[in-house]
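Note to self: keep these together.
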Amino acid sequence: MNLSIPLFALASMLPQATPAQENEPKPKFETATQSVQRQLEESLTELASLRERMAAEKLPMARQLRELEAELVRVRAEYQTTSRTLDSRTLDLSNLRNEIKARQDETTYLSTLLGEYARNFDSRLHIAEVDRYAKVIEDARLAPENTTLSELQVFEVQAALLEASLVRLEDALGGTRFDGAAVDGNGTVKPGVFVMAGPAAIFRSNDGLGIGLVEQRLGSLEPAIVPFGKPEDVAAATALVTNGAGLLPFDASGGNAVKVEAIEETPIEHILKGGPVMWPILGLAAAALLVALVKWAVMMLVRLPSRRKIDALVAAVASGDEKLARERVGEIPGPIGKMLGAGVEHLREPKDLIEEVMYEQLLATKLRLNSWLPFVAIAASSAPLLGLLGTVTGIMNTFSLMTVFGTGDVKTLSSGISEALITTEYGLIVAIPSLLLHAFLSRKSRGIQDEMEKAAIAFVNQVAKTPLAANEAA
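Structure:
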């Protein structure tokens, strides 16, 4: 520390002599000078002492400074190392948290998946296996909601269901036997033994009276026994259940063949299910068919002449030979011959009169051919309406049954639904053929009328060309 004081500073510190002081005696000035000199010497001595002490302390302090700087470098390096370690540990902690979150998500997903598997597993069981796996399924369902269980215990309970399902698959491949109970045809629950191989299951009661295939019936949670129809199937099933080996009676349709056989019915039974509206529909169908057959027979008996006979009559009229024309018209059969005969009878009359006479015969034939054909058309249009009436009454009966029994049992409602659908079915069955028969008979009648008109036009045109009527008039 530099404590030196410049001389000019010290001089400035000396008292300045004023004019009055200049007149004072010199000893006072010398005394002041000596005092200042003494102070200056003391200050210089102190300055020298301070410089010596500074010189003595400078080296240790420099050494201490270097030590502190080295410590600072070491601390900085340690800080950087610590910072890097902290950052690394922070990153590791973040990764670990993400890993824990991922594992928790996987755990939740697996728990949900196992819960869903438990629900689906129950729906895929055969009715004979429901009681066998009821407890393990119920435990797996209730485990996630049980707060007294840890996550590990919940997984163990759910894994037990998975293990049971794997064992079930192995049993299904080689077949398995287990005790249970089933309902016979009389509604009695009988204990016995089930035998399952794949989807096929048979049951034999302990008393030996109930034996057959196993199926689930609507509205019942117990397996039902479907008896075998052949004695050899009964013997094979008995041997299989008793001995654990033998032939397995197998239904390839999975029980559908028995169900289809149960719903098979005769045509009479099918018609009777349609209710009272079926009788008007069947009566209308019989009447329309009878009328169609009669009209078809009548039209088939109508004889149409060949073109050669018509041309021969026209040629006779063109030659003016009335006698020959009568002979030729006598050879023409059916309503066309009758119409042309009326024209020949009035051959010497004016053309307008001949046309009217022939048209009269045409109208008579047309009315005879078209008689009762509208009834077939009425049957074709009325049968669907009767079917619709049966549909309405059937739906009304269905709603009445729903009011009494509810909607739980479809078999109870099947009678009203059958009535509604069967009447509509038979209404269409009657209407479509009736419509086709009416179209066919109308076309047949129209064809006969066209042939008559064609022959009449040819005859009248030739009469207009021949001078026979004009000569008679003259």
